[in-house]
Amino acid sequence: MKDLRRYLALKYIQYLVLSSSNGVSTLLGLLGSVYTMILLQSAKVSSKSTAVLISSLAQADILVFLSLVSDVVLGSFGAGISPTASALARILLTANAHVSCVLLSCVAFEAYLITFLPSESRPLRTVRNARLISKVIWMLVAAESALFLMDDHLRASSTSAPSRGPLGLLFQLSSAAAALLRSLSYILGILLRIINVYIYYKIFFSMSPR
C-alpha cells in the first residue's frame, strides 16, 4: 500500500539518511508509527512477511515514547534521579535506532529477493521467518542495551568500584565489551547505509524502462 511505502521512506530518511535525529523527524516518526500500527490491523493489509517486519519497526518507536517519558520524569525530579536512570533515556533511543536500522535493512533485502529471486526466495519469505527474525533482533538489541546500562552504572560508581578481584574484573570486561560494541555498532551503521543504497539502486534501475 502507498501509505506503508511512505512510512518506510520516512523511516529510511530518519534512520539511514539523517546523520542524527531531531525533534521534527522524531515527531513525524512517532505519528507515522501510530498510524501504521492502526493501518496494519485493517483487513485490507494482507498478513505477509513484509507486514510483520513493518509492524515490528513501528513497535520500535515505543522505545522513543518511553525515552520521552523518562526525560519528563528526570526533568520533574531533577537531582533525585540516579546516574543510571539518567542514562536510560539515551539507551532507549539507541536501542530504537539499532532495531529500526536492522529492520529497515531486512525490508530492503526482502524487496531485493522479491525483485530478483521471487520464486526461489518464496520459501524463505514467510510470516514465521519474519517473526523469528524480529524476535532475534529484539533479543540482541535488548542484550546490547543491558550491557550499555551496566557499563554506565559501573562508570557512575567507578570511584567506589574495586580495582581487583571478581568485581574489578567484571568492571574491566563490561567496559571493554561496551566500548567494542559501540565501535562495531558505528561500523555496522555505515555498512547498512551502503548496503541499503546499493539494494535500492539495483531495484530502481531494474524497474526503469530500458
Automatic annotation (TrEMBL):
GO cellular component, one term: plasma membrane
Transmembrane segments: 12-40, 52-77, 97-117, 170-201
GO BP field: phospholipase C-activating G protein-coupled receptor signaling pathway; positive regulation of Rho protein signal transduction
Pfam families per record: 7tm_1 (PF00001)
Bilayer topology: Multi-pass membrane protein
Keywords noted in UniProt: G-protein coupled receptor, Glycoprotein, Membrane, Receptor, Transducer, Transmembrane, Transmembrane helix
InterPro entries: GPCR_Rhodpsn, GPCR_Rhodpsn_7TM
GO molecular-function term, one example from the UniProt record: G protein-coupled receptor activity
Domain G-protein coupled receptors family 1 profile: 32-210
Highest taxon in the source lineage: Eukaryota
Gene3D superfamilies reported in the protein's UniProt record: Rhodopsin 7-helix transmembrane proteins
Subcellular location: Membrane
Protein name: LPAR6 protein
Source organism per UniProt: Rhagologus leucostigma
Originating gene: Lpar6_2
